[in-house]
Write a structure and sequence with these properties.
single chain, about 300 residues, alpha/beta, Rossmann fold, Alpha-Beta Plaits, six-stranded mixed β-sheet, four-stranded antiparallel β-sheet, 12 helices, about 35% helix
């Protein structure tokens, strides 16, 4: 029966543990990643994200526990498993004196894939115009795209990306985001770790949050926010507010907290109380220029989870 329930899980870890001496980097981690989803892997620095990724890739081996990738026990069949995975490390580095085409040709040889795919992959990630330029002259964003092209060699069914948008400016973040969407649209499962919570929120079907090597939550962003009772926020822009919270607002039934910054008043309250808040403000003669409801963010869920763990 278990195999029936797990047939749609492409990556499973069972009590995955990694110790370095007395230090426990990953502690009995149990993950179940669905086939065909974009899965976000979150946690503060030192939480165990990169250690977990290295174990999934067979770069380091668990102290105990199991990894099952696409139905195969990884530790016994890493040669087979690695053919299914495209990997982009946190720090992408290539030989600076080679061109993008030479670089991909080199990786095609390593992966035993026809070199004819290299030009198409460079075109796909937007690097065809610099196909013969030296990689050493590339910006961080261009190098990251070359890393993605390298990961795509062999058309893997799983992509594991470690901080793929780290250190990129907004233009390159947008390009990398679209590439991740494209990989997934073509049927691949994408697992990526990131500190850019807004990108995880926009891209991921599901997220796992780890802290001190332990899994502390795994679910959709919406369900995490509901589970931890993180409520929508009413943001009101008031002319002349000057960072002062009107006392009457805090007395309204259903208002939990309020804070002011400049001319913006942020109020966490029940849905029924929103209209009352606006009515009270206008009754005090305050000029409301604009207002909006902001849904709970992954950042709020993340901060609450980590603070509760600590």
């Amino acid at each position: 029966m278990e195999s029936e329930n797990l047939k749609d899980k492409i990556i499973i870890t069972k009590n995955l543990t990694k110790k370095f001496g007395d230090f426990v980097a990953v502690d009995s981690l149990n993950l179940k990643i669905e086939r065909g989803e974009i899965f976000g892997f979150l946690g503060p620095n030192g939480a165990g994200k990169t250690t977990t990724i290295k174990m999934l890739l067979g770069l380091i081996f668990p102290t105990s526990g199991k990894i099952i990738i696409d139905g195969v026990e990884a530790e016994k069949n890493f040669k087979e498993v690695k053919r299914k995975i495209g990997y982009v490390p946190e720090k992408v580095e290539f030989y600076s004196n080679l061109s993008p085409l030479q670089t991909l040709n080199f990786f095609c040889e390593l992966k035993d894939v026809e070199k004819s795919v290299a030009e198409d992959l460079l075109k796909e990630v937007g690097l065809h115009d610099v196909i013969n330029k030296k990689v050493g002259t590339f910006s961080k964003g261009m190098t990251q795209l070359l890393g993605i092209a390298q990961a795509m060699i062999g058309n893997p069914s799983i992509y594991i990306l470690d901080e793929p948008m780290g250190g990129l400016d907004a233009r390159w973040v947008k390009i990398v985001r679209e590439k991740i969407k494209g990989m997934n649209a073509n049927g691949a499962t994408v697992v990526f770790s990131s500190h850019i919570l807004s990108e995880v929120q926009n891209l991921c079907h599901k997220v796992a949050i780890i802290n001190k090597g332990r899994l502390i939550a795994e679910d959709t962003v919406e369900k995490l926010s509901r589970h931890f009772n993180i409520k929508p926020r009413l943001e009101i822009y008031i002319e002349g507010l000057n960072g002062v919270v009107p006392e009457d607002v805090l007395k309204i039934e259903g208002v939990e907290e309020a804070e002011a910054e400049g001319n913006k008043l942020s109020v966490i309250c029940s849905a029924d109380a929103r209209a009352t808040v606006l009515r009270v403000l206008e009754g005090r003669g305050m000029k409301v220029n604009d207002f909006r409801t902001v849904e709970p963010s992954l950042e709020e869920a993340f901060v609450k989870l980590i603070s509760e763990e600590d």
